[in-house]
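Inverse folding, one chain.
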């Protein structure tokens, strides 16, 4: 974890410094609002609070950038470290950790994000259009219902107001309106991130495998554990020795949460810097725990296994909306159980299809059309 992230976490967890940050930031934004006039043809994009060029904001950017109807729009990306993103697709970049970021935020009429874009300073934005593509279907509790949530983050959940909140389907529409009670309009048209699959051809997959040094004679197992956010008294992740054992039969790809850190043995391939949706195409199997990534992975109808040795502790300390009684996927509560599940040649792949159809039913083009309609409607209001 870098120094900037350490400072941010410290501010979030401290009630006193969190209040100072919030009210100081709110004062500055209020002053700037009276000075800066929004540009009706400017959009600011951010993914995972400035950590990545990825996910639905990236798909939204590509869809709009390649549409002649939006050729006169200025499209800006915000990153915590812009120097890390020298992609030729990105014409305009801004440092999300710089005070100048709020100038670009207020100057842009449209905001497109998959998490907080306002740096946890929720403020009224009557002259702006806040479009939120939340980054996953809620399996674990979020917002006011989340246990042990930092005061500054809890305040953001309670006060932030999205003009448009895109959801996968009826399930997350019901959950997210509870998490974000000030949302003005729910757009139940699915998520643009499905477009990522369409952009990954078989040639792309072969190229990714080559880049990762994958042995084409072994299947690919993608391991995606989530971050706990508390000190656990139980095993939470697969052990290094078990990952090493798995690497004898699989190419093991490890994708950790951006808040977590782990030292991997040489047999395991770290893929933290690769797009999840590229990895989904490459992987033959997914192993996760409480991460919502399996909802997106279900689109490809591949086997998914859950590893939950700390289920009781996780339910108590973090909280869950859905348990495996709801999901009905193969679940292991120990490494021995997971070993047996992986060796079993029979897999209930039809259940993966049930999950896809229930939780993620929309075609990706529905979200594309909805996003462009929103921009057109808002443009006509000027």
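Residues assigned per position:
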């Amino acid at each position: 974890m870098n120094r900037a992230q350490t400072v941010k976490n410290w501010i979030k967890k401290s009630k006193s410094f969190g209040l100072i940050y919030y009210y100081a930031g709110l004062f500055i934004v209020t002053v700037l609002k009276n000075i800066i006039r929004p540009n009706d043809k400017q959009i600011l994009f951010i993914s995972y609070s400035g950590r990545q060029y990825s996910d639905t904001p990236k798909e939204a950017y590509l869809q709009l950038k390649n549409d002649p109807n939006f050729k006169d729009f200025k499209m800006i990306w915000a990153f915590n470290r812009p120097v890390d993103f020298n992609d030729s697709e990105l014409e305009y970049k801004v440092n999300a950790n710089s005070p100048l970021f709020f100038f670009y935020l207020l100057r842009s009429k449209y905001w497109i994000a998959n998490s907080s874009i306002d740096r946890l300073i929720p403020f009224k934005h009557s002259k702006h259009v806040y479009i939120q593509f939340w980054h996953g279907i809620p399996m674990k509790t979020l917002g006011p219902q989340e246990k042990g949530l930092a005061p500054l983050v809890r305040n953001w959940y309670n006060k932030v107001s999205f003009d448009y909140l895109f959801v996968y389907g009826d399930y997350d529409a019901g959950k997210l309106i509870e998490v974000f009670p000030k949302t003005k309009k729910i757009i139940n048209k699915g998520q643009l991130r499905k477009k990522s699959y369409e952009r990954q051809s078989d040639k792309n997959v072969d190229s990714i495998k080559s880049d990762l040094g994958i042995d084409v004679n072994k299947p690919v197992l993608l391991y995606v554990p989530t971050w706990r956010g508390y000190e656990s008294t139980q095993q939470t992740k697969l052990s290094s020795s078990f990952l090493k054992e798995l690497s004898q039969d699989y190419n093991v790809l490890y994708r950790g949460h951006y808040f977590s850190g782990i030292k991997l043995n040489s047999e395991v391939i770290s893929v933290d810097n690769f797009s999840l949706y590229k990895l989904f195409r490459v992987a033959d199997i997914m192993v996760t725990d409480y991460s919502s990534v399996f909802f997106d992975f279900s689109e490809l109808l591949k086997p998914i296994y859950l590893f939950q040795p700390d289920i009781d502790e996780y339910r108590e300390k973090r909280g869950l909306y859905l348990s495996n009684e709801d999901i009905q996927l193969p679940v292991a509560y120990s490494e021995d159980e997971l070993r047996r599940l992986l060796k079993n040649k029979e897999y209930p792949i039809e259940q993966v299809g049930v999950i896809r159809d229930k939780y993620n039913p929309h075609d990706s083009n529905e979200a594309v059309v909805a996003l462009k309609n929103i921009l057109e409607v808002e443009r006509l209001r000027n």
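The CA atoms of residues 347 and 368 lie 34 Å apart. The chain has 16 helices and 13 strands.
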